[in-house]
Amino acid sequence: MTGISRRAASKFVFPNEAPQVVSEDGRAKTWIVRGGNFAICVSEVEEGAVLSRGDNPEEYMVILPPQSASITIATDCEAIDAEPDSLTIVPPGSSRITARSPGKIVRIFSKAATDIIALAANADVYADGAPELAPVDLWPEPNDGYRLRHYPLAQHLNPNGDRIQPRCFRSTNMMVNLFGSFFTRRETNSLSPHWHDDFEQASLCFDGRWVHHIRYNWGADLKDWIPDDHSEIETPSIIIIPAWAIHTSRDIGEDGPESSLYDIFCPPRMDFASKPGFVLNEVDYPLPVIDSEQRTKTGGTLLSWQKAN
Ligand SMILES: [Fe+2]
What is the average pLDDT across 221-233? Predict the structure, then answer.
């Protein structure tokens, strides 16, 4: 039995909404959706567009999905070229992203980026400060210090491998699981309903049609009950699944077309991080000392989900 979710899921289909930020030169449109501890910024950019941060307090992640923009990411100390189908972790401080081709750019910030958090389309959902969530205690600094860390993703995908191929990375303040794209649809007899005790899960989908099944527990007050949700959501879209809500996601429709799913967690999940070999950049970031009561908890069938066929 789980607890009671303090809020319903936030669902956001990008083409249906006006962007939260349009750059002065009009070359970058950015949609912002937040969870309790993080914000996801999806930008649609033209060549030459610039996305800069003056003094970002913590690391942030930059995801370039397949068929997205090519970019250059620069800090005060270094610069790298990043191509589609890659992840880059940007160190704290100032940074500048310049688009070398048009397309999408995803950036994920922790709530320490208060200016971005304040702009989120669903800011009112978190007016209570989300006290049910584990705090974003920073995990230890990288072994060789903060710097740009760039991870092309194709090398972590086996085209002949399992249908579900998790590709998990973490930083000092968050974790992403960038599943390899799916070309067959999930079987309806091998779903993985589960919940998270004290953190949220964002699921960002760029391709396909998805159903994020969600069940909320009942409390004593009938007026606060939230109905089950089995509705279909188009892409590109984001759902922020609250703590305690039982959930499982499946792509729907005919086999063949691509569907994609990226999961986002903030702070990093200790259950994934402490599983040797699961976090693909684990050599870059030391684990925190694990106290007897892990702060980021999970429930349900979580540790067996990734092998579900
Ligand atoms: Fe989950």
Answer: 96
Tell how far the Cα of 245 is from the centroid of ligand 1, in angstroms. 9
Of residues 298 and 95, more confidence is placed in 95
Whether residue 116 is predicted with pLDDT greater than 50 in this model: the reply is yes
* Better pLDDT: 305 or 59: 59
Nearest Cα residue to 62 out of 30, 20, 26: 30
Q: How far is it, in rounded angstroms, from Cα 104 to Cα 92?
A: 23
What letter does residue 299 receive in the DSSP assignment? Answer: -
Contact in structure between 216 and 225 (CB atoms under 8 Å): yes
Domains of the chain, each with CATH number or no CATH = 19-137 (2.60.120.10), 150-307 (2.60.120.10)
Q: How many CB atoms lie within 10 A of CB 23?
A: 17
Q: Residues 177-219: pLDDT tens digits?
A: 999 999 999 999 999 999 999 999 999 999 999 999 999 999 9
Ligand 1 centroid distance, CA of 89 (Å): 23
Helix (H, G, I), strand (E, B) or coil at 51: strand
**Ligand 1 ion: Cβ-proximal residues, 5 Å cutoff:** 201
State the Rg of the chain over Cα. 19
- The two beta strands, 28-34 and 38-45, are antiparallel
